[in-house]
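Team,

Forwarding the record for the chain on the shared tracking sheet. I've put the sequence and predicted structure together so nobody has to dig through attachments.
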Amino acid sequence: MTLKIAIDADADLAPYEQVRTQISEQARSGALPVGYKLPTVRGLAEELGLAANTVAKAYRALETDGVIETRGRNGTFVAAAGDAADRRAAAAAAAFAEQVHRLGLTQEAALSAARDALRAAYDD
């Protein structure tokens, strides 16, 4: 999965709105899953040949819409839809996935660890 954005210089939509619309559509369709880490503002601006302020404006609008969330120095991620509990669970799952990937665990080992932790939590 990768973010795919194409800027049409001849379009009626301003570049920031093109960025906002395309990220929003990809997040809502599931093409960008919950927890997907977006490029930095500067990184995406360089990639698209846009000013950093243009991408920052798109990111601010997306955050206001609840499509993305910024986690301080950790970066900007596709936010979970739904209520706050769902969003927090998705963020925890994304952090778990990132951690087990860094540890080099297989998906099956990671799922097994998650199942064990859930069993322990729900048996209390």
